[in-house]
Write a structure and sequence with these properties.
The protein is mostly helical. It is about 65% helix and about 0% strand.
């Protein structure tokens, strides 16, 4: 019999398999291939597990450094500097420079002229630099002028009338046009409705005069059939409804385009799901279409309220003499007659500042109401 081979365990050998241990059984020559392969596979598996652990630790460290990285736009944050961004977007910047120049020239630089509201301004002899300062005397004159408050109330009455009668009409027309299946008919209706937007107020007032004036087509037709004619263009009590009708005919088409653009963004799957659930046309409009239009309606309503005192100056001025100043006077025409036309520019400038502050307050109030109703409005709630 061959003597059994003696196995010697070397305690200095490491666990990574630097030295392979001999097998516990085998031939006396110590050439046990299976034992050597087993230890080698164990060593390879150990090295693989260590490599995987190192990779995981490196990945966690990289993720932690990314989470704690600065939020700036510098190179350390993975972004680009403002110089690099300016070089990248130089074409867009050059395109916007003319618009910025016009905005500064006609909107911001003239704000410096508001200093005349605190002066006894003489445009002919003294100018801005030579006119004496009078403090808030011009504003005191405004608040003590009872006619100013009457005109302000009349302006708000005309605005509310236009808001109630004019604002819902573009929404209704947009919903009606959106139901037209033929693209050609829809485009034709949209063009016809939008066409008066390009007309001047002189042409609009002339058209209404030819239709509803004392010698207009409607009055002549009534007289030919034995009825008494009428003249809506000179009726003071009907004036606020007249200007609202003119605004609807002229500017409703622009609102239709805005609401049609909002309707185009509505997901058609919502209509299909509502139809599958058994919703009819009216329920789909009430539960799908109108909720989709709510953000746009809220935004336009806030902007409309902010321009409560900015009624069309030309429209009112063209019809002021026909119905009288008592029914047609608005804030802009009053400032023009009592301030600019008489040369009292300090009074006119003070009234303009009051008008601007009042409009800002109206925008902030309307935007607060929009936030309470869950809409974003002009700016989001922080």
């Amino acid at each position: 019999m061959k003597p059994r081979a003696t196995v010697t365990t070397d305690p200095d050998r490491t666990a990574d398999g630097a030295g392979a241990s001999a097998g516990g059984s085998g031939d006396g020559d110590g050439k046990d291939g299976s034992g050597t392969r087993t230890d080698r596979s164990r060593a390879i598996g150990t090295r693989g597990s260590r490599t995987a652990k190192k990779a995981k630790r490196a990945k966690r460290a990289k993720k932690g450094s990314a989470n704690t990285a600065p939020t700036g736009t510098g190179p350390q944050a993975g972004g680009i500097t403002w110089r690099q961004r300016l070089r990248r977007d130089r074409t867009l910047v050059l395109m916007t420079l003319p618009a910025i120049a016009l905005l500064l020239l006609f909107n911001y630089i003239p704000l410096l002229g508001n200093i005349v509201a605190f002066q006894d301004y003489d445009v002919y002899d003294l100018g801005i630099t030579g006119s004496p300062f009078v403090g808030f005397d011009n504003f005191t004159r405004i608040f003590e002028d009872y006619r100013f408050w009457e005109v302000l109330i009349n302006t708000l009455v005309i605005f509310i009338t236009q808001l109630v009668l004019f604002f819902p009409i573009p929404i209704a027309i947009a919903l009606l046009v959106n139901t037209i299946m033929s693209a050609r008919v829809r485009a034709w209706v949209q063009a016809v409705v939008y066409l008066p937007h390009f007309f001047s107020w002189v042409l609009v007032v002339t058209v209404f005069q030819q239709m509803f004036g004392g010698a207009g087509l409607v009055a002549q037709w009534l007289r030919e059939h034995g009825h008494e004619g009428f003249d809506l263009m000179t009726d003071p009590g009907f004036f606020k409804f007249l200007v609202s009708a003119q605004a609807v005919w002229k500017d409703a088409g622009w609102g239709v385009i805005v609401f049609l653009a909002a309707l185009a963004a509505v997901n058609t799957d919502l209509y299909e799901a509502a139809a599958v659930d058994g919703a009819g046309r009216w329920r789909r409009m009430w539960h799908v279409t109108l909720p989709a239009l709510r953000p746009v309606i809220a935004l336009l309503l806030v902007l409309r309220v902010g321009s409560a005192l900015n009624l069309d100056f030309e429209q009112i001025l063209l019809q002021r003499d026909q119905v009288g100043a008592g029914a047609s006077e608005i804030l802009d025409t009053y400032i023009w007659w009592t301030g600019i036309k008489t040369g009292d520019f300090g009074y006119a400038a003070a009234a303009g500042i009051f008008k601007g502050l009042f409009s800002v307050a109206m925008v902030l109030g309307a935007n607060k109401v929009a936030h309470m109703l869950g809409e974003q409005g002009v700016y989001s709630k922080k």
